[in-house]
Write a structure and sequence with these properties.
mainly alpha; Arc Repressor Mutant, subunit A; Tetracycline Repressor, domain 2; 2 domains; 69% helix; DNA-binding; homodimer; 8 helices
Chain lengths: 198, 198
DNA sequence: GCACAAGCGGAACGTGGAGTCCGGTTCTGT
DNA sequence: ACAGAACCGGACTCCACGTTCCGCTTGTGC
């Protein structure tokens, strides 16, 4: 691979990343190519389709999240708080991921690369929760999947319009903290089954 | 208005509702018109644009939710549990709303009809939470907005692919229950600010 | 039952975006 | 330095979808 080709690939990834952040995932490939300063041909030589480009960018983002989490796991000495510190960092990054996550939910997660990252994410969450449980801060039955649920909620709940206030971030974290730290309190379901009759 | 015109409008709403549920909001207006057994012209005579059709369907759905919640508020005598019973019913209906909610988040909520329903939803939540607080089941600082956050998370977190298992529903409800019943436990933010440097 | 308008359906249009192709350009091996 | 291949860019194709238009049909007032 020629070195200018490599450079173009990276500029495309960066440009796509920025454009998705700023204008959502519905920007045209043309605009992305323009932003990267290359032609459409070059874009499609590097990524067979727009979908593949989106998946590539998403994978980079998840990779960054994994990296952040792993570093924190190694460096933060506070067993009780490491999970929440991580979640806080995650929410701060949330802006950047919302738009992407919303379109990514469906078939894209089937790609082997994504599957792998999914597993890695669960492992990371598991390790964090384990430390919290050891310190008595996290309820013992909380699972990595629970945490993934909450994280997804965190990434999704807000309208894509405007940046979130620090206030809102704190509020949401507080709710999640409560969800993870309380002992479970179950009861049988009792609502009626779903039906769309009027 | 002629009575066949009225009937067509309703068939269109029903068909759109069903198609959005089954194939997501990206189905073409052509398919919706076909499903309703009318021509495209008829569709556009009733709804000036596709967006207006989506908004109409969404409004119906939210209306149903409001109706369900209000009835529950009147008939369920259990102050401590009414909020959670409501949430359970809501999650059961969630399937039907996910796809719609995901596209609706942005400009559509600006419509006056939607604004009104938004306020009504907050009022409903407020009333439910008030009963829970009176019974000592809900933490006193929980707000209707908190509840809306959690509800949105509930509607969004899962991939749109398959129906949710009863297990998953229970699990998620359990997390939300924990979030609303625990006393708040705040601490200052300490993570680093968001940055997308590698 | 008739006339007329309101309503209907689907063919046709315009737009916009994904993906292709080829003549020109730039890197690399010798 | 030169040949040739890899690569570039943007004009072009193709298609899908939202929207419009018009000749025909059907309900309604007299």
């Amino acid at each position: 691979m020629r070195k200018d080709a490599q450079a173009n690939r990276e500029r495309l990834l960066e440009a796509a990343d920025r454009m998705f952040r700023e204008h959502g995932v519905e920007v045209s490939v043309g605009e992305i190519a323009d932003a990267a300063g290359v032609g459409r041909g070059t874009l499609f030589r590097n990524f067979r389709s727009k979908e593949e480009l989106i998946a590539a960018v998403l994978s980079v983002r998840v990779g960054e999240l994994l990296e952040y989490g792993r570093e924190l796991l190694e460096t933060d000495p506070d067993d009780a708080e490491v999970t929440f510190t991580f979640l806080e960092g995650l929410v701060r990054r949330q802006e950047e991921n919302r738009a992407l996550l919303q379109t990514a939910t469906d078939e894209m997660f089937a790609a082997p690369e994504m599957q792998r990252q999914h597993v890695e994410l669960l492992e990371l969450f598991g390790a964090m929760l384990a430390r919290g449980k050891r310190a008595g801060a996290i309820r013992p039955e909380a699972t990595a999947t629970d945490m993934l649920m909450l994280v997804k909620g965190l990434c999704m709940f807000a309208p894509v319009e405007q940046p979130l206030s620090a206030e809102t971030i704190l509020r949401h974290l507080d709710l999640v903290r409560a969800a993870l730290t309380t002992p479970a309190y179950s009861r049988p379901l009792r609502g009626e089954p779903a039906s769309h009759a009027a």
